[in-house]
Design brief:
Layout: E1 5-6, H1 16-24, H2 44-61, E2 67-72, H3 75-87, E3 93-98, H4 101-110, E4 115-121, E5 143-146, E6 148-149, E7 154-155, E8 166-169, E9 186-190, E10 201-206, H5 223-228, H6 238-253, H7 257-277, E11 281-282, E12 294-299, H8 305-314, E13 317-318, E14 329-332, H9 339-356
Parallel strand pairs: 1-13, 3-4, 3-5, 5-8, 8-9
Antiparallel strand pairs: 2-10, 6-7, 9-10, 11-12, 12-14
Helix pairs in contact: 1-6, 2-6, 3-4, 7-9
The structure holds pyridoxal-5'-phosphate.
Residues 10, 75-77, 102, 146, 150, 169, 171-172, 190, 193 line the site of pyridoxal-5'-phosphate.
């Protein structure tokens, strides 16, 4: 068996231990004679898997009582609409912080449902930093931000203080570090970046905010109805939930999110330290706002992009091409990327710079 280093932003690498365990359990989950994929979502086996996944997620993030945990579908993109549909609560306005491609998409979708105010934006410096001064309207239903911009590689390392409920699209750094959930009205994340397979979206929401949906909200998109039905109003993404559950167990075994954060800091530092001393590679993001998960960088000469990518593939490193909207390269180094993968990348950067620099 050979595993390559996959630097994709998502769907992304999953821990080899998790995949091996899923492989072992593929045909016969614990003596049931069936795969988790084949189980009734209402049967006691799957209900147990779902309950345990929620319990482990609550433990990892120390989610306080008073918050509901939902396992939904439709990706983070559906949340761009589902958040306003559920959280406007008749107020008709919500504020957004714009720090890159994903928050721009969230704004665009929210405009369908309400009056959107821009509380802050980093557009003035081409989305290369995380603005700390926000102008939030007192009567806004909530303020939304993207706590880690996957494409630009900009991360908020502190949770902003707000008077109205804070909503975070945490898709690409979910479970990469501890977070004080009590500071948020709602946190959502698509699983396929850092926590499991595609098809599953996590929503953690303060209970008192739900139950006042906009007229016309489809039943499966109503947080309150989903919460009351344990996210099983209809068939959930059962296999993805099972794999996410295995990822949660893996994270607990590593020592929980504080331990995971330490490893992530070390991995990111390896790569940024090299980029910063390099005369050839460049990362444009303000130092204090750099993402630990998604690290974009450019080569001195874009004509060398193709040879760079080709050489990377030859060395067992794939998916380093940057997003089409920013160009260059991007290394996504989520929890499941071993530090050896980052070392291999840095070695390759050094070798490439020596040859072409
Ligand atoms: C990937 C991503 C999305 C979109 O996720 P889908 O699951 O494809 O809808 C939204 N926000 C952020 C920050 C992302 O990284």
């Amino acid at each position: 068996m050979s595993r390559i280093f996959n630097f994709s932003a998502g769907p992304a690498m999953l821990p080899a231990e998790v995949l091996a365990r899923a492989g072992d359990e593929m045909l016969d989950w614990r003596g049931t004679g069936m795969s988790v994929m084949e189980m009734s979502h209402r049967g006691k086996e799957f209900m147990g898997i779902a309950a345990e996944a929620e319990k482990d997620l609550r433990e990892l993030l120390a989610i306080p009582s008073g918050y509901r945990v939902l396992f939904l579908q439709g990706g983070a993109t559906l949340q761009f609409a589902q958040v306003p549909m559920n959280l406007l609560r008749g107020k008709g306005k919500a504020d957004y912080v714009v720090t890159g491609e994903w928050s721009k998409k969230a704004v665009k979708e929210a405009k369908v449902y309400c009056d959107v105010g821009i509380a802050a934006t980093s557009e003035d410096r081409n989305f290369t930093y995380a603005p700390k001064q926000w102008n939030v309207r007192k009567d806004a239903a909530y303020v939304h931000y993207c706590s880690n911009e996957t494409i630009g590689g900009v991360e908020f390392h502190q949770t902003p203080k707000t008077e109205v409920p804070l909503v975070a699209d945490a898709s690409s750094h979910f479970l990469s570090r501890p977070v004080d959930v009590s500071r948020f009205g709602l946190i959502y994340a698509g699983a396929q970046k850092n926590a499991g397979p595609a098809g599953l979206t996590f929503v953690i929401v303060r209970e008192d905010l739900i139950g006042k949906t906009e007229k016309g909200t489809p039943t499966v998109m109503d947080y309150k109805l989903q919460a009351d039905a344990d996210s099983m109003l209809n068939t959930p993404a059962s296999y993805s939930m099972y794999i996410a559950g295995l990822v949660f167990k893996w994270l607990k075994q590593l020592g929980g999110l504080a331990a995971v954060e330490k490893i992530n800091i070390e991995k990111a530092k390896l790569l940024y330290d090299y980029l910063d001393q390099s005369q050839f590679f460049h990362n444009p993001v303000a130092k204090e706002d750099r993402s630990r998960m998604n690290i974009p960088f450019t080569l001195k000469d874009a004509k060398l992009d193709e040879p760079f990518l080709k050489g990377a593939v030859e060395r067992g490193m794939v998916q380093l091409k940057g997003h089409r909207s920013v160009g260059g390269m991007r290394a996504s180094i989520y929890n499941a990327m071993p530090i050896e993968g980052v070392r291999a990348l840095v070695d390759y950067l050094r070798e490439f710079e020596k040859k072409h620099g």
